[in-house]
């Protein structure tokens, strides 16, 4: 079985595939329909003859072994230790708008906390009438909601400020996922404790060994935030904050505190590490923006892309990608194949939900010529995704965070694709 | 089981006696009996929860409803199931707490004399819920002295929404957080000093702790090992091509250092440092950043907010919507938007820093945290 497994897509293999595809088509479209018989059809295959595994062989189902390459990946040089590090969602292998639970990127500051839900408590205190403690059972007695939201790390695409660096949308854009969350409104929990009039900010704190903490304006907390215990219909995965995490729709991922254990109400922000020394955006003039919570309008072409080259040669090609905005729905995505000279509006497919990923497609016939692929998202409030040059002209190249610039993929005549910047 | 027939019988007897003659209840005598309770319970205007809950307004109150007191599961359940403290139930409970409500945490054997029970209840009934003398006539909100009725009182907790639209307001879920619990988790510190614990520590002591517990990752002088965070230096680099963002060059508030070291450091053994150690380490980090220059400098709760970090003023609130490409919300160009063909100015493949491609020493930087 492993002998059939797809090998890692080395650049050499990609090149070969591209050339063979082009050669096969060289004979002309009509001739390509004629072909020799294939043994996978003319010969009886093992799976067609012998029974496979019975039920319960995998009590919790796992993907086909032929999909073993579809995994999260780390960029080892970024951090000193995987305990405080990040890995990336393989966007180029996925479709639709929901990220499979096991492929959602991970960002931990002190590893994955393993918490028995029976030992987990959520405390609300500070400027409230009644400081309260909830058990998991208590939380599940509040009215529940199911909502689909994207989560993007503010540092997504952060390695690309100085120019093209990482070859693959998994690495350039993979600090991103989109799930259906099940949880309870944060507002209901805060109402239970009774927020006092002078309460203006909320501190959310995790139970992990980093004690992750972020200040969140009370207006946002009372608006659409959730305390979630479910993802994609099942319990949160440990690496996503089991048993509960905060959901802060449209806002930077760092604020979605995992392993949530404490909510304190105060009259001013706490100015903790993750909102001062980190997650502030240094400008060229040496000053820094703070409280840049909202994620900007953004998109990326996931196929084709450096890790997903064109293997089929000329002819019909499905271009696909993702678009999102922290302000609401995506109203339109434009794509270009000539580096932004002429644009075509792509086809949005699937549900269009506020603050969720949107899937777009653009089908065209590739003639085998060089392409410069880009996508440009526009949200329902009219915000247009800027170019990287536009961003750098205002912010410089040291912001780290909130790089939502238009991404360029260069396609050569062999179908090999590279992350580039163009003039 | 709090509806024990024996207790109800006893209570009914006591109440019958009380009704028979007002003088059977003696508030003054009750006060003397209460001396046995004082070790754990308070009454009056300044009463607080101690080992046991405040007893102001106890007569007529639903069980297990004093805020901030951690009741036993048994008592909480009894309260949720509708137990109300009236003369009947209190009499049964005070006579033999363990038998009346199995699993409750009151470590008191009980009042064996019936008159002590009646008198102490009269004494307790003389305090209103605010600890002031109870208003005559409102002294007890207890229902009629019919033991069977009180024993089947309606549950006090409202039931949660299960159908229709979601209602706002309280659901009676969760329990009061105790002051001890809040103190255990609430270690956060703000720039105005709110949250700072008592304590102090010197630069010299901080250096000892730092060398032992911090230098492995952060370097002998805060310069860092590998990609662990740099803590010192970097002043004047924020406009440079490669800014060095440290406590001295970038962080706006010293309180952030204290809070973070206290909650998350040392990496791998978080929350193992005492308050004095954290003050000392914070003082040493000021020293490494040339913000204090005296090794004998002592940082404490008292002088903490007098120290300001140099970069405090250089932060401004989010104004992205004013950036030209956002402020101008016009329709983007669709045709002939740029002159001539695109030309590549930078290749990722030249850098070759993508995992599996090797060549990571070429990484041009960019962080994730």
List the defining traits of the structure above.
heterodimer, A: 423 residues, Sulfite Oxidase, Chain A, domain 2, Immunoglobulin-like, 2 domains, 5-stranded antiparallel sheet, 24 strands, disordered N terminus, B: 369 residues, mainly alpha, Cytochrome Bc1 Complex, Chain D, domain 2, 14 helices, 32% helix, elongated
What do you see in this structure?
The complex is a heterodimer of chains A (423) and B (369). Chain A is built from 7 helices and 24 strands. With 423 residues, chain A is α+β, with helices and mostly antiparallel strands. In chain A, the strands form 6 sheets. In chain A, strands 5-4-13-8-9 form a 5-stranded mixed sheet. Chain A has 2 domains: 91-289, Alpha-Beta Complex (Sulfite Oxidase, Chain A, domain 2), CATH 3.90.420; 298-420, Immunoglobulin-like (Sandwich). Chain A has helices at 11-26, 39-42, 136-139, 169-173, 186-193, 218-223, 388-395; strands spanning 73-74, 85-88, 107-108, 121-126, 132-135, 144-152, 176-185, 201-206, 213-217, 226-231, 234-235, 245-247, 260-266, 281-282, 288-290, 298-303, 315-324, 330-336, 344-345, 347-349, 358-366, 371-379, 408-411, 417-422. In chain A, strand 4 and strand 5 form a beta hairpin. Chain B is mostly helical and 369 residues long. In chain B, helix 1 packs across helix 4 and helix 2 crosses helix 6 (114-125). Residues 1-23 and 137-163 of chain B have low confidence and may be disordered. Chain B has helices at 5-20, 27-34, 73-80, 87-95, 97-100, 114-125, 147-151, 179-185, 203-213, 215-218, 254-264, 275-288, 324-327, 348-351; strands at 61-62, 84-85, 175-176, 200-202, 298-300, 315-317, 344-347. Chain B contains 14 helices and 7 strands. Chain B has 2 domains: 5-151, Orthogonal Bundle (Cytochrome Bc1 Complex, Chain D, domain 2); 187-314, Cytochrome Bc1 Complex, Chain D, domain 2 (Orthogonal Bundle), CATH 1.10.760.10. Chain B is elongated, with a radius of gyration of 33 Å. The chains are: A alpha+beta (423), B mainly alpha (369). Strand 5 (132-135) of chain A pairs antiparallel with strand 3 (175-176) of chain B.
């Amino acid at each position: 079985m492993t002998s059939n497994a797809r090998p890692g897509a080395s650049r050499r293999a990609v090149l070969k595939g591209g050339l063979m595809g082009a050669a096969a088509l060289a004979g002309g479209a009509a001739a390509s329909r004629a072909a020799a018989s294939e043994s996978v059809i003319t010969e009886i295959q093992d799976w067609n003859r012998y029974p496979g595994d019975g039920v319960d062989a995998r009590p919790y189902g796992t993907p086909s072994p032929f999909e073993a390459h579809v995994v999260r990946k780390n960029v080892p040089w970024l951090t000193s230790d995987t305990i405080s590090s990040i890995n990336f969602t393989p966007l180029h292998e996925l479709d639709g708008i929901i990220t499979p639970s096991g492929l959602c990127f991970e960002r931990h500051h002190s590893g994955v906390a393993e918490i028995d839900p029976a030992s987990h408590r959520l405390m609300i205190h500070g400027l409230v009438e009644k400081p309260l403690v909830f058990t998991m059972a208590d939380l599940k007695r509040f009215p529940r909601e199911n909502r689909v939201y994207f989560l993007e790390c503010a540092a997504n695409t952060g390695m690309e400020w100085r120019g093209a660096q990482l070859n693959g949308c998994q690495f350039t854009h993979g600090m991103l996922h989109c799930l259906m969350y099940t949880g309870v409104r944060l507002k209901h929990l805060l109402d239970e404790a009774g927020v006092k009039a002078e309460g203006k900010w909320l501190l959310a704190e995790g139970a992990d060994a980093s004690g992750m903490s972020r200040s969140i304006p009370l207006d946002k907390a009372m608006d659409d935030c959730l305390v979630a215990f479910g993802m994609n219909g099942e319990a949160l995965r440990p690496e996503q904050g089991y048993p509960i995490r905060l959901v802060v729709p449209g806002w930077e991922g760092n604020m979605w505190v995992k392993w949530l254990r404490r909510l304190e109400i105060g009259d001013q922000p706490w100015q903790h590490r993750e909102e001062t020394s980190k997650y502030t955006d240094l400008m060229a003039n040496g000053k820094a923006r703070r409280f840049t919570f909202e994620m900007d309008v953004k998109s990326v072409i996931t196929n084709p892309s450096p890790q997903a080259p064109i293997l089929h040669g000329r002819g019909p090609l499905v271009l696909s990608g993702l678009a999102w905005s922290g302000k609401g729905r995506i109203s339109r995505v434009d794509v270009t194949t000539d580096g932004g000279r002429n644009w075509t509006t792509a086809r949005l497919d699937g549900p269009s939900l506020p603050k969720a990923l949107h899937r777009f497609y653009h089908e065209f016939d590739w003639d085998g010529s060089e392409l410069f692929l880009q996508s440009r998202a526009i949200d329902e409030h009219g915000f247009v995704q800027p170019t990287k040059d536009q961003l750098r002209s205002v912010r410089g190249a040291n912001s780290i965070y909130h790089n939502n610039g238009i991404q360029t993929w260069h396609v050569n005549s062999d179908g090999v694709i590279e992350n580039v910047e163009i003039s | 089981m709090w509806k024990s027939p024996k207790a109800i019988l006893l209570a009914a007897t006591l109440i019958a006696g009380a009704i028979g003659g007002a003088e059977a209840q003696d508030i003054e005598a009750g006060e003397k009996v209460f001396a046995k309770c004082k070790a754990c319970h308070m009454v009056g205007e300044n009463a607080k929860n101690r080992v046991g809950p405040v007893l102001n307004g106890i007569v007529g109150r639903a069980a297990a409803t004093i805020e901030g007191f951690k009741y036993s599961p048994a008592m909480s359940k009894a309260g949720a199931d509708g137990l109300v403290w009236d003369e009947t139930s209190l009499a049964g409970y005070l006579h033999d707490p363990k038998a009346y409500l199995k699993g409750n945490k009151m470590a008191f054997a009980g009042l064996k004399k019936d008159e002590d029970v009646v008198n102490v209840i009269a004494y307790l009934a003389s305090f209103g819920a605010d600890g002031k003398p109870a208003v005559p006539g409102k002294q007890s909100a207890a229902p009629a002295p019919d033991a069977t009725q009180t024993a089947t009182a309606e549950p006090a907790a409202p039931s949660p929404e299960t159908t229709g639209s979601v209602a706002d307001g309280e659901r009676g879920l969760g329990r009061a957080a105790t002051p001890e619990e809040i103190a255990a988790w609430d270690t956060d510190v703000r720039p105005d000093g709110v949250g700072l614990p008592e304590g102090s520590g010197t630069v010299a002591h901080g250096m000892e702790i730092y060398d032992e517990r911090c230098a492995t990752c952060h370097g002998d002088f805060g310069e860092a090992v590998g990609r662990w965070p740099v803590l010192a230096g970097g002043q004047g680099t924020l406009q440079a091509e490669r800014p060095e963002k440290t406590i001295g060059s970038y962080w706006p508030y010293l309180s952030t250092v204290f809070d973070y070291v206290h909650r998350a450091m040392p990496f791998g053994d978080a929350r193992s440092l005492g308050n004095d150690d954290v003050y000392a380490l914070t003082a040493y980090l000021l020293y490494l950043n040339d913000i204090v220059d005296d090794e004998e400098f002592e940082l404490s709760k008292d002088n903490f907010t007098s120290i300001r970090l140099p970069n405090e003023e250089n932060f401004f609130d989010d104004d992205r919507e004013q950036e030209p490409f956002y402020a101008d919300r016009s329709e983007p160009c669709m045709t002939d938007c740029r002159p001539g063909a695109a030309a590549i100015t930078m290749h990722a493949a030249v850098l070759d820093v993508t995992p599996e491609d090797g060549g990571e020493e070429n990484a041009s930087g960019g962080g994730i945290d």
